[in-house]
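## retry 2 of 3
previous attempt timed out at serialization; input unchanged, resubmitting
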Amino acid sequence: MKKFICLAGCMLLSAYALMAQEEGVIEKRSRIDRNKGIFIGLGPSFTLGKNIGDYSVGFNVEAGFQKRLNRVLSIGPSISYMYFQYDPEITTEEGGAYVGYGDPNNWRTTFTGVPNLNYDYGYVLNLEGGDLSLLSLAVNLKFNFVPIRDNSKISVYGFAKPFVTLAMRKEVNGSAVRYAYETYVDDQNTAQTNDDILYYNQGDDTWYPDGTSSTWGPDDYDALKSDTEITGGIFIGPGIEISPAKAVSFYVQAAFGYTFPITYVATRSYEPTVDSYFDEEFPMVKKGFPSVNLQFGVSFNF
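## retry succeeded, writing output
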């Protein structure tokens, strides 16, 4: 029995020694010649989801440093800039009118001779400004799905980038023209309403300007002033890198991101009513800002 125990103990020690030797081989192989790199990338940016601001396609640029801890995991800091320009076509693509009922000034009463004349009316916007910029500091965590070697031709990876960002929005200036049903006086001096319907609705509808216009900006509403906020968020996504262990490598990646609530122009988040138009916060909202970046870049490895 004692001999068996001694033999078993020897076998266990031998197995442990072999495992230790193999681990040493693995540790040695986990290192590659070039385990540091400086990278820079750029590409288009898009808002992600419905009613996420009145913004057109933007752009992003990023630069950073990374160190390969082993053949699978890399880590390092980066700084990035993302920019979205306000797009007035998005504001007006669904009619752009904020509609109410009843003449608030009753200004047609004298003209028509009919008291308490009511009709549909609304305001059509013309906005400027509101561009959105995000300057971010991030920690990049990069995971290679297939461990890379000194002779690897291509690498497929996933990444996560938690970040702190400085969100900056330009001030918004605008003007609005008030539109209404056209009314006229017939031979019997009776106020009538034209057969045309507001173009805000369906078909070949027509609006008629009633001669009233207004301008407004930061002096009128605090919400329209330029704004700077500090917040955070995270980007995650996949990527492909060509010649990852060479002196120069190239990559393409898609980053799906979420920025914690910031303030930006989002007219489609409001109901198309006159009450919305006169809301002191209109056309701003403060909520999360999801986006997606496509990025093409180069890395200089050493």
